[in-house]
Design brief:
The structure is a homodimer. Chain A has a single domain, classed as Winged helix-like DNA-binding domain superfamily/Winged helix DNA-binding domain (Arc Repressor Mutant, subunit A, Orthogonal Bundle). In chain A, 27% of the residues are buried. In chain A, strands 1-2 form a two-stranded antiparallel ribbon. Chain A is mainly α. Chain A has five helices and two strands. The interface between A and B is large, with 57 and 57 residues. The structure holds a DNA duplex.
Chain lengths: 111, 111
DNA sequence: ATTGTTCATCGCAAATATACGATGAATGAG
DNA sequence: CTCATTCATCGTATATTTGCGATGAACAAT
């Protein structure tokens, strides 16, 4: 499937926001990030106990978060410890704050 | 396709973040929101000029943003004027700020 | 009534996402 | 070496997303 008819000229910011959003687009991934960021940071496969999904499915979701750069893994045999990628996390925070915080044009007379 | 094996017990916040994220998960929708939020309030037709996608495709993306509540439409025959739904926009801003701003657990010793 | 403009919706095709069980790889324990 | 544990990956099935052209609905102007 092609993405557009002609030009795919998206801003880096636009691509980044879309990319991070795709990673956040499933509630279970939001849940995982919450667990990692909030409570007991640096979890392992204890996620499997907290989430009631097949282990393979959770692993897939972790991969999505990894690919988005939002988390990082660290092998600690025979387990793997995951935690938030603070750098990327902070970048995401700024990106979204800037996006949602963008002002409204002066001529908006809707509603 | 089933969503989970057993419990779908997601928080309202988790669902909301996932839902809004799905709407932001395509760069062209981020672009559209930027145009609506930043510049002036737009008619659909002006978007057609700015985006180089089939009119039907743009209309579909607008529908996604509408369903997510991020924008609102106002008919002004024969055109339709779209603009940001400020209320929802502000709520999204808070949601994401709270999410990304959530602190890290004291025990994070990763990396 | 007919035409033109603007936008939404339908129908199709292809790509992605989601979930699961089964299997494979890596490692520590015995 | 063999076994158990932990996690990733493969293969499969189904659902959703994305894109387009074609068509439909609403309305203003003629």
């Amino acid at each position: 499937m092609q993405r557009t008819l002609t030009s795919p000229d998206y801003t880096l910011d636009e691509e980044s926001i879309a990319s991070i959003s795709r990673a956040l687009a499933h509630p279970v991934r939001v849940r995982i990030l919450r667990l990692l960021a909030g409570e007991t940071c640096c979890f392992t496969g204890e996620l499997t106990g907290h989430i009631s999904m097949a282990q393979s499915t959770i692993s897939q979701h972790l991969k999505v978060l990894l690919d988005a750069g939002l988390i990082q893994g660290q092998i600690d045999p025979p387990k793997v410890k995951y935690c938030i990628n603070r750098e990327r996390w902070g970048l995401a925070e700024e990106l979204f704050a800037g996006f949602f915080g963008s002002g409204f044009g002066p001529g908006c007379d809707c509603e």
